[in-house]
């Protein structure tokens, strides 16, 4: 490095002597330095166009390769950033040799060039990270991993380093000294970047523990979220609800609090149905022999049934019906059971899994099952409980009045 600097000094000394002999000026005259400065600017412009030409050649090679990774990583924004870097590097490398004494003018030019190099370098690195994130998001095997937050954190670190370097150039101190000073105020920095730090930790935990992936269907009751995860970033998890509204949730809330993830249900290919039907307990009783013969004849109960209780026969029939239903998963539990009686009647719970997980199709199948339940229960002499409406009370009062009139007559 030192030999290279000495060689450049020698070349610039020869140029000064040559320009001095041409112009008749003293070798230390400011005009000589100005001419050299203009020459360096022209060399920087030439370096810019040479870099553009080289990068265009690289772009052509990238387009002709069979792999897609280079197409995603090396694109126009990245090549533009690299091409913008070359003239400033060349100028920064050659400028000190233009001046015999490095005065205030050189200091300003040096500071501007240094700021420019840092800014373009940060832009190029962040563009490369954006391209890498895009490449990950395009590939199916990487989609489940919530890496966006990690990339955002790395970009934030790169920008912070760039700012520290610019401050060090401005005040003439080492970047290490600035970092050391910032370390003394770590508590304040942690307070300022609390959400960012917690978001990074939460994103890593969500990914490492496979708790959440893009495309999962989740329900977070506290935040009124019920829909698909469309984005996982450093500070927010975006959920598109089924009404097409968007709910944003801090990642650390999903780690510190509970939420439901229905993705395992989707992967299993089965979705649970667990719904009670309330039976009017007054309608539970023994069936007559004629009614039993009718149900046997219509195929609702077997001829060798040892029970006459309508509720039990209905439960056994419905379990048999579920067993023969092609949409009910037989490798998963299915049953019809009684729950504790309530003021609304006797709950008869139907618990089974359907082999359809798509929302619309699932709802149609579930509805068809309960259509059959509601239509069949009266055949067994069972009544579905429902709270009396105003019209029911009015009709009952009318019937009582009519009965009273008939009795009076």
Describe this structure in words.
This protein is an alpha+beta fold and 409 residues long. Helices cover 60% and strands 11% of the residues. The chain has helices at 2-23, 30-64, 69-73, 76-94, 104-138, 148-171, 175-184, 186-192, 194-208, 251-256, 263-268, 289-297, 310-323, 359-376, 390-408; strands at residues 217-220, 225-232, 237-241, 246-249, 260-261, 271-279, 335-338, 346-354. The chain has a 5-stranded antiparallel sheet. Strand 1 (217-220) and strand 2 form a beta hairpin. The chain is elongated and about 125 Å long. The mean pLDDT is 79.
How many helices? The count is 15
Report the end-to-end length measured between terminal Cα atoms. Answer: 125 Å
Order of helices and strands: HHHHHHHHHEEEEHEHEHHEEHH
Strand content range = 5-15%
Task: Provide mean pLDDT, rounded.
Answer: 79
Rg over CA atoms: 40 Å
- The amount of helix comes to 55-70%
Report the strand count.
8
Q: Largest sheet, order of strands side by side?
A: 4-3-2-1-5
Structural class: alpha+beta
Taken from the alpha-carbon principal axes, the silhouette is: elongated
Low-confidence stretches: none
**Main sheet?**
5 strands, antiparallel
Write the layout of secondary structure elements.
Layout: H1 2-23, H2 30-64, H3 69-73, H4 76-94, H5 104-138, H6 148-171, H7 175-184, H8 186-192, H9 194-208, E1 217-220, E2 225-232, E3 237-241, E4 246-249, H10 251-256, E5 260-261, H11 263-268, E6 271-279, H12 289-297, H13 310-323, E7 335-338, E8 346-354, H14 359-376, H15 390-408
Antiparallel strand pairs: 1-2, 1-5, 2-3, 3-4, 6-8, 7-8
């Amino acid at each position: 490095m030192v030999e290279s600097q000495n060689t450049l000094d020698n070349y610039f000394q020869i140029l000064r002597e040559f320009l001095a002999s041409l112009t008749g000026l003293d070798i230390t005259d400011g005009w000589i330095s100005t001419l050299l400065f203009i020459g360096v600017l022209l060399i920087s412009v030439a370096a810019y166009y040479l870099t553009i030409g080289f990068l265009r050649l690289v772009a052509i090679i990238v387009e002709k390769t069979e792999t897609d990774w280079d197409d995603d990583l090396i694109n126009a924004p990245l090549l533009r950033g690299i091409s913008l870097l070359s003239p400033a590097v060349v100028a920064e490398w050659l400028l000190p040799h233009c001046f015999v004494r490095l005065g205030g003018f050189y200091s300003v030019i040096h500071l501007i060039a240094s700021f420019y190099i840092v800014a373009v370098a940060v832009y190029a690195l962040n563009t490369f990270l954006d391209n890498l994130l895009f490449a990950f998001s395009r590939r199916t095997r990487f989609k489940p991993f919530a890496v966006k937050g990690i990339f955002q954190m790395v970009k934030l670190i790169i920008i912070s380093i760039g700012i520290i370097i610019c401050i060090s150039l401005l005040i003439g101190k080492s970047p290490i000294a600035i970092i050391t000073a910032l370390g003394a105020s770590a508590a304040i920095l942690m307070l300022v970047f609390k959400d960012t730090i917690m978001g990074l930790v939460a994103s890593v935990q969500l990914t490492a523990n496979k708790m959440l992936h893009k495309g999962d269907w989740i329900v977070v009751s506290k935040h009124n979220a019920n829909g698909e995860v469309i984005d996982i970033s450093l500070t927010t998890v975006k959920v598109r609800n089924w009404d097409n509204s968007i709910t944003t949730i801090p990642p650390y809330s999903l780690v510190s609090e509970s939420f439901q993830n229905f993705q395992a249900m989707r992967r299993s290919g089965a979705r649970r149905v667990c719904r009670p039907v309330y039976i009017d307990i007054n309608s539970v009783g023994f069936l007559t022999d004629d009614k039993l013969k009718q149900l046997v004849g219509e195929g609702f109960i077997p001829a060798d049934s040892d029970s006459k209780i309508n509720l039990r026969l209905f439960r056994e029939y419905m379990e048999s019906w579920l067993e023969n239903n092609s949409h009910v998963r037989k490798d998963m539990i299915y049953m019809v059971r009684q729950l504790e009686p309530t003021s609304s009647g006797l709950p008869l719970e139907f618990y089974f899994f359907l082999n359809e997980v798509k929302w619309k199709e699932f709802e149609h199948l579930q509805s068809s099952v309960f259509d059959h339940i509601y239509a069949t229960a009266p055949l067994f002499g069972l009544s579905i409980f429902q709270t009396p409406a105003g019209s029911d009370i009015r009709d009952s009062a009318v019937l009582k009045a009519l009965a009273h009139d008939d009795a009076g007559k």
